[in-house]
Amino acid sequence: MIFGDLKKQGVSEAIDEFLGFAKGKAQIVANYGIGDLKQTCTAALSPEDTEVLKKCDYAIVFGGDGSIISTARNVSKASLPVIGVNVGKLGFLAEFSVAELEDFFPRLKKGTVPVDKRMMLNCRVFSDCREEKFCSAAINDIYITAGPPFRMIELKILVDGQSLAGCVTDGLIISSPTGSTAYNLSAGGPILSSKIEAVVITPICPHSLSFRPIVINADSTIEVFGVRVNEGTTISIDGQVSLNLTINDVVRVEREDSDFLIVNNPLRSKWDTLATKLSWAEQPKYKQYPNV
Question: The pTM is what?
Answer without folding.
Answer: 0.89
